[in-house]
Automatic annotation (TrEMBL):
Oxalate binds at N116, H121, E126. Residues 69-226 form the Cupin type-1 domain. It comes from Aegilops tauschii subsp. strangulata. This is Germin-like protein. InterPro entries: Cupin_1 (IPR006045), Germin (IPR001929), Germin_Mn-BS (IPR019780), RmlC-like_jellyroll (IPR014710), RmlC_Cupin_sf (IPR011051). The lineage of its organism: Eukaryota, Viridiplantae, Streptophyta, Embryophyta, Tracheophyta. It holds the Pfam family Cupin_1.
Length: 238
């Protein structure tokens, strides 16, 4: 009996350590996105000198309806750029009342054969619905173990269809119609989702990434990298 008691006592520290690890993992998952609000709202005070992860709350007594409103004219078409798209994002920088609420919205216009080129949102999952036209969309999974390593998942969407792009994964949208534009609305699970357009970031960085590094990474000649870096990498996010 005493031997059994000793074994139970010896096992207790291990059990406690395992419980602590599990709790830490659960806590990490709970804080891996925008923090949940602890009050009804926290309208961003853009003039505060205090720097925090997000924005300091404005005095609730000074809050009014305009802090939750923007005449964004999202029903109006936008002029597209040379890749054939225009992303009009409404995030916390446009509506201060979005602070801590973990959501933003975007209208995306696509010219005929236009695209929203491969990009990621480092802080948000995206759910997109097609309002007009047709879109060919897809995303690529991360460098996880085979057989799911860099798996490409794609779909042709028609008017009214919905598609989800998981947070942080490279994705795109392309309008395959050579004659008609397309329009989509996207909701994103962050007040400030961010966007990293892959080609712009790799070949249009300031200062430039060494062509030795990129030539080795892409397994091409350095003059190919030099040509790509000499292009004008236009931003389609407004």
């Amino acid at each position: 009996r005493k031997t059994g008691e000793r074994k139970n006592q010896m096992a207790s520290p291990s059990s406690f350590l395992l419980l602590a690890v599990l709790l830490a993992l659960v806590s990490w998952q709970a804080t891996a996105s925008d923090p949940s609000p602890l009050q009804d709202f926290c309208v961003a005070d853009m003039n505060s000198p205090v720097r925090v992860n997000g924005f300091v709350c404005k005095n609730p007594m000074e809050v009014n309806a305009d802090n939750f409103f923007k005449a964004a004219a999202l029903d109006k078409p936008r002029v597209t750029n040379k890749v054939g798209s225009n992303v009009t994002l409404i995030n916390v920088m446009q509506i201060a009342g979005l602070n801590t609420l973990g959501i933003s919205i975007a209208r995306i216009d696509y010219a005929p054969l236009g695209q929203n080129p491969p990009h990621t949102h480092p802080r948000a999952t995206e759910i997109l619905t097609v309002l007009e036209g047709t879109l060919y969309v897809g995303f690529v999974t991360s460098n996880q173990p085979a057989p799911n390593r860099n798996k490409f998942l794609s779909k042709v969407l028609n008017k009214g269809d919905v598609f989800v792009f998981p947070a942080g994964l490279i994705h795109f949208q392309f309008n395959p119609n050579p004659h008609k534009p397309a329009i989509a609305i996207a909701a994103l699970s962050s007040q400030n989702p961010g966007a990293i357009t892959i080609a712009n970031a790799v070949f249009g960085s300031d200062p430039q990434i060494s062509d030795d590094v990129l030539a080795k990474a892409f397994q091409v000649e350095k003059n190919t990298i030099d040509w790509l870096q000499a292009q004008f990498w236009e931003n389609n996010h407004n």
